[in-house]
Structure of Metal-dependent carboxypeptidase:
Amino acid sequence: MTNNALNKLGRYLRETQLLGSIHSTLYWDQNTTMPAGAASWRGEQLGLLAKVLHARQSSDEFDDLIKEAKEELQIQSVIDQKDALQKGRNIELLEIELSRQKKLDSKLVVEIATAQTDGYALWQEAKTKNDYKRFAPALKKLITLRQEQAKQLDEPRSCWETLAQPYEPDLTIKRLNELFDPLRTRLPELVNKAKTASSKNTINWDLTERSQLKLCERLLNKWGRDKHITCLGRSPHPFSITLGPQDFRLTTRVVPEQPFSCFLATAHEWGHSLYEQGLPSQSHQWFAWPLGQATSMAVHESQSLFWENRVARSRAFSDSFWVNFSNEGAPVQSGLDLWRSINPLVPGLNRVEADEVSYGIHILIRTDLEIALLQDGLEVWDLPNEWNKRYKELLGVIPKNDSEGCLQDVHWSEGAFGYFPSYLLGHLISAQLSEAMSIALKEEGYRSDDPLGECILEGSEHKLLNWLRKEVHHHGRQVNAEQLVEKVTGRRLASNAFLNYLENKLEMLTSSS
Amino acid sequence: MTNNALNKLGRYLRETQLLGSIHSTLYWDQNTTMPAGAASWRGEQLGLLAKVLHARQSSDEFDDLIKEAKEELQIQSVIDQKDALQKGRNIELLEIELSRQKKLDSKLVVEIATAQTDGYALWQEAKTKNDYKRFAPALKKLITLRQEQAKQLDEPRSCWETLAQPYEPDLTIKRLNELFDPLRTRLPELVNKAKTASSKNTINWDLTERSQLKLCERLLNKWGRDKHITCLGRSPHPFSITLGPQDFRLTTRVVPEQPFSCFLATAHEWGHSLYEQGLPSQSHQWFAWPLGQATSMAVHESQSLFWENRVARSRAFSDSFWVNFSNEGAPVQSGLDLWRSINPLVPGLNRVEADEVSYGIHILIRTDLEIALLQDGLEVWDLPNEWNKRYKELLGVIPKNDSEGCLQDVHWSEGAFGYFPSYLLGHLISAQLSEAMSIALKEEGYRSDDPLGECILEGSEHKLLNWLRKEVHHHGRQVNAEQLVEKVTGRRLASNAFLNYLENKLEMLTSSS
């Protein structure tokens, strides 16, 4: 069976992927190495590549190649149905993406790109100077343009839902409420419980930069990092990025007076990277096709959160790793010490540094507010008040200023609306997957109540990874996030696994003192 | 006066430059950060960019733009002759480049790009494993492809000369022999003289990596490095590269048991970078035009060698800087101590680590061998023998293996034939420029026999830089290397200034003990 049209389409996709990965390489360099003075030229380089990429992704040539491949596939499907199904799913995903790109007015695409760059610059300025009104007009502009984009895309969805699709395919607000509603009542209760039980878990020591980086290296070695295909860099905001089929990069950062920030960021980004490493993209051929990509940002976050919270922040991990911290000068005398320090349970204003119990509340607030901004008429001028009101209600803390309030995160400044829920959905997915993993490990012979912990304590994290590779990673975009969860756990995604886990952990933490 | 056609051509060049600088960014990343496993994908990225660049540089559109700009210029030249002359030189250089690119088959361009990436990877492997035969077929392939390239270019020059043009415009083997012949006889004599006089100048101590990098930082700060537009990285083979009008990068490396290697590499690469920083390219507009580029690699090397040898290895520099080495634990008690240690005068096998007296011999050997490989029928299989034979003859040392022999340098693995002579020409140019600089400094009031040293001793290296900026850097490609030397020094380039300098230094070093 020859696949002429499919092969031609594959070659086209491969060249697009090469260009896309060049764009990513420039992004990596910009965030890890580039001197500040080079920003303007780098902006032009990225702009040029974005223009070329958009042209390729919306071209008539691309359209024709997809059509021809689809016809060829219809003939082939009689012969090998399973292979054809996979290829068919690839074509389907390409068609969706092409139709999206084609519906967009290229003038709007450029306007959005410019508004993103301007928005980011103004946000940085506003945040530094704690001056929301500098940023507000740019935010207003981004909202208007993104609303226009949703209108042009003309999908049978609301504005916010349309914009959330690239992050969470098939997500609806109705479904989001089903999943988040139990959290809206239960999370504030848990935060209060944590507050009364252990308010003294603050950290009043620090580690040198050298020590923190040494601990990160040790962690990655323990977790089987292959230096041949990975590298760890430094950047102001940690991230993970794939630059080629054998090129997985991650970054971390050192935050003064936060001795676990660097370590946990490394664990988190490594989780993202492991997902990318496990995608069905291990040959050049697959790397270019949609099925070789991550299925959603929530699934991505479920993987990073798993390694950060279920592993690195577990009691078992602390028991097996605390000596390393102690050797670097951390004042911890036991696994219990490290475990309590790395799980502070003090609700704060900062999402990124939040503990597991309060983290979800940060997301609920952002999700509600961005839906309100995009489609329910919340005015940008009222955002700071609304933000502060909700923080007081749900977390009992009030930002001193907008820099630690509604200017805290980068997402909106780049016009990225619809991304925030992925973090919390990631927590839910991670919890439900962990339950399924526990069952699997019990079947493998781990007999305790906490088979994950048993595994971690004996240094067998590779068993957790193997399970994730086998059950989760390799599907790529064959299934969406919810289908994946149901396939792996046998149940529809829900919030109870996450809430059970939190209650348990809180119980253990507060009773361990 | 409107310059419509010139402006259109400028915009075209600017986009080419953006793409070229993206290519350079990938190269930087490949050599400083990229994990080894990513080499094959990176090769494809570079190949794709090379293809796109070649298409742009040989397109009919480009051809038309040049023609139109030329016509426009002929009308304009009546009005402002000086400006028109500069623009005319730009057009002339573009025409030369276009005609070269047009002659090349695009298939060959891609083949060469791929062979370079493969060659580099295989060379690294062969060097590590000391196994020349792993690399030999790749070298053979590179030679064949480059021979084919010279054939397609069809210039009134020999194969090697044709390939050397991009590095040394207008260079001929005849002229090269005129310049190098006096060195062929005199350098081995000087090496012998050095050998008998001071065989005890070996270094039997080392510095930690941390100390070495600290000394490099101190050096760059002393020499006025602006962190806003520069960055210092690490790579197996030190290099300097410009990635944008405000983005100057350089790398260094730490070599065990060679405590000055890292320091001198930094001084060397910083000299390259200073030249690039001083080119008439400080606005985006100029960055894209030929006149904003370095005129030849020999001139480039003259600048790096100047800062490495005439400054960092001078007695005056040692006198002013030795305390920093001492503070980092180096067993040097005085400027004289440091100066003698940093000028060991022990002929060795390694070009990069060679002292100034034997350095030229390394280049003579490589130049002869690559001319023989490219156009006189030397077979790649015979290269190790020929290499070793010449080292024995000219330097009296024999490599223990090919890793420290013919696998030592990266150049041939990337198909860069014709580059090596630039190093030695750079020594000649640096020496002749230094004489002119001395005269200028005397006129400024420095009265000693060694006005450069006087300047360095008082910490006024910026005066040397200012002279270079004013006399050398800003010409760009307005003149070629030989024209530049004649313009600045009033004499045709020759080897005597270099030989005089060497004899003098040797005298001082051997009498100082």
